[in-house]
Automatic annotation (TrEMBL):
Natural source organism: Kitasatospora viridis
Transmembrane segments: 29-47, 91-116, 137-160, 189-207, 214-231, 304-325
Pfam families the record matches: ABC2_membrane_2
Superkingdom of this protein's organism: Bacteria
MF term (GO), any: ABC-type transporter activity
DNA-binding as UniProt keyword: no
Cellular component terms per the entry's GO annotation: plasma membrane
Coiled coil: none
Keywords of this entry: Membrane, Transmembrane, Transmembrane helix
Protein name: ABC-2 family transporter
Length: 330
């Protein structure tokens, strides 16, 4: 009997099937993301180095414009802090503002066309004519785009945090709770970007037109970000102190203030019906000024809760998108 020799099976890691299709469709976005990350890395490296040199040469580490630290009250220190804020501080603020726009840009530019372009161009018919189920096709598109978005947003958040860290809360005037940092210097940025991607994908699936889906995505993501900012102080337990907000250290976030009466009733400044806080104090005898605040140690719990909320909502919207596409193409 003659033995039949079988050629050895060569395993290849080259993308095939859906993986190949996802790579072909997202390749321009991947290359664009790499270029953006390279530019951001170079910019963060330069900015970090410049900040460290300026702070060290002027001796303003830990100094704010108003500081009780004797070392920060030396001649020329306050002027140096102001110079830093007008230069590197403005760059940090501008970078934070641009990163705040990132979720809407990714949601509209990547999420909305994800399925809307398939309807407009009719390419979904060719894909589904192969041995691919509708659910698997949509899940593959969402997963591939989600991986790209999470890596890009996560890397940009890390770079921004690294660039912000030398000046932190005091020198730069950009506190950990500020709108320029909280949503852009931690995992919340990646979670919000994934939520925006899910919003865009669902809008594209429902509207089946790219431009209307992009417009709707920008509006909805903006509203979601505004809602997150409004509820953020209440996502984790806060502290109430009998101290005016103006007397708190820079590392604390005083988000509500007013007067507290002897019976424990809180009366916000704008709730007593009088034009000036002093009038409120005179009206309610025995009351004291209070501030509801978060300390710097609350940063990561707040980040964790908000990140979990965004990821949960993103998963829910993705499930709705998959179910909608499966039903519409059934």
């Amino acid at each position: 009997m003659t033995a039949v020799l079988e050629a050895p099976v060569r395993r290849t890691f080259a993308p095939s099937g859906l993986r190949w299709l996802m790579w072909r469709q997202l390749r321009p976005a991947v290359w664009g993301a790499l270029v953006l990350l390279l530019a951001a890395g170079v910019g963060a490296l330069w900015l970090h180095g410049q900040e460290v040199d300026f702070i060290r040469s002027h001796g303003i580490a830990g100094c704010a414009e108003i500081s009780l630290d004797p070392n920060c009250q030396q001649p020329g220190v306050q002027e140096a802090v102001l110079e830093f804020r007008n230069g590197y501080g403005r760059l940090l603020q501008l970078t934070g503002m641009l990163l705040l726009l990132l979720p809407a840009v990714l949601g509209a530019g990547l999420g909305a066309p994800l399925l809307a372009q398939e309807w407009e161009q009719g390419t979904w018919k060719l894909v589904l004519s192969q041995s691919v189920t509708r659910r698997r096709w949509v899940l593959a598109k969402l997963a591939a785009a989600g991986l790209l978005v999470s890596v890009l947003a996560g890397a940009l958040a890390l770079l921004y945090r690294w660039a912000w860290h030398p000046s932190a809360n005091d020198v730069s005037g950009i506190a950990w709770y500020s709108k320029f940092f909280f949503s852009t210097g931690g995992p919340d940025l990646a979670a919000t970007a994934l939520l925006a991607l899910a919003v865009g994908a669902l809008a594209g699936a429902l509207l089946r037109r790219t431009l209307p889906a992009m417009a709707v995505t920008v509006v909805l993501v903006g509203l979601l970000q505004a809602a997150l900012t409004a509820v953020r102080p209440h996502l984790w337990g806060w502290h109430t102190v009998i101290v005016p907000r103006s007397e708190l250290p820079n590392s604390t976030w005083g988000f509500a203030q007013g007067f507290i009466r002897p019976d424990g009733t809180k009366l916000p400044y704008d709730g007593c019906g009088l034009p000036a806080p002093a009038d409120c104090a005179a009206k309610y005898a025995g009351s004291a000024e209070y501030t509801d605040l978060h300390r710097a140690t609350d940063y990561w719990p707040l980040q964790a809760v908000e990140t979990a909320m965004c990821l949960g909502l993103a998963v829910l919207l993705a499930m709705v998108t998959v179910a909608w596409v499966h039903r519409r193409l059934a």
